[in-house]
């Protein structure tokens, strides 16, 4: 099983998050617009598509 997460140290907290916009499972959560996004492991399918989506390489896919 893959581990997928957004590394808060790498995330630049963009105004609009490309990973959130493009994840087909709507697994990227941002409760407040000012919050850094995170990935809900219950919604994430582990597809790995987000690995190349973030220009800051904050979307990490392991495994
Ligand atoms: S995960 Fe990437 S695209 Fe999304 S807010 Fe963070 S830096 Fe921006
Ligand atoms: S691995 Fe796939 S389902 Fe999970 S957050 Fe990335 S794009 Fe979405």
Characterize this entry briefly.
The protein has 63 residues and is mostly beta strands. It is 8% helix and 19% strand.
Report what the structure shows.
The structure is a single chain. The protein is mostly beta strands. It has one domain: Alpha-Beta Plaits (2-Layer Sandwich), CATH 3.30.70.20. The protein has one helix at 18-22, and strands at residues 3-6, 28-29, 38-39, 59-62. The strands form two sheets. The protein has a two-stranded antiparallel ribbon. A hairpin with an 8-residue loop joins strand 2 and strand 3. The radius of gyration is 10 Å and the shape is globular. It starts with a strand and ends with a strand. The model has no long low-confidence stretch (mean pLDDT 96).
Write the layout of secondary structure elements.
Elements: E1 3-6, H1 18-22, E2 28-29, E3 38-39, E4 59-62
Antiparallel strand pairs: 1-4, 2-3
The structure holds iron/sulfur cluster (2 copies).
One iron/sulfur cluster binds next to loops.
In total, how many domains does the architecture comprise? 1
Shape summary: globular
Roughly how much helix do the residues carry, as a percent range? under 10%
Order of helices and strands: EHEEE
| N-to-C span | 7 Å
SS field, number of helical segments: 1
* Amount of beta strand: 15-25%
């Amino acid at each position: 099983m893959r581990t997928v997460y957004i590394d808060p140290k790498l995330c630049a907290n963009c105004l609009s998050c490309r990973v959130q916009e493009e994840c087909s499972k709507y697994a990227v959560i941002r409760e407040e617009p000012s919050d850094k996004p995170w990935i809900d492991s219950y919604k994430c399918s582990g597809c790995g598509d987000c690995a190349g989506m973030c220009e800051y390489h904050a979307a990490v896919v392991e495994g």
